[in-house]
Amino acid sequence: xxxxxxxxRSSSDPSVAERARAYASLARGILAGAAGDAKGAVxxxxxxxxxxxxxxxxxxxxxxxxxxxRLAEACDAAHDPEGAAQARARAAALR
Length: 95
What we know:
This protein is mainly alpha-helical. 79% of the residues lie in helices and 0% in strands. Helix 3 (38-57) runs antiparallel to helix 4. The longest helix is centred in the N-terminal third of the chain and has 21 residues, at 14-34. The protein is flat.
């Protein structure tokens, strides 16, 4: 439930807030893609990846190649081959 994730974004626990932010953005991106909004999917997935990268930089979460692969697919659907190539390269670096 995206609304429940959004509510957790204001948690006083930074780890919970960061994960909620990432998962809420991921969910929005997936839902946008399912609705045929390729650009909205890219926006949501980029926000999700950025939130996860920030949590990783703080030492609270590991990166996941699957998130970058999903972003690459969304970039393909949005006719953004450069974005897709960058996301795939990042995913490959994590494997």
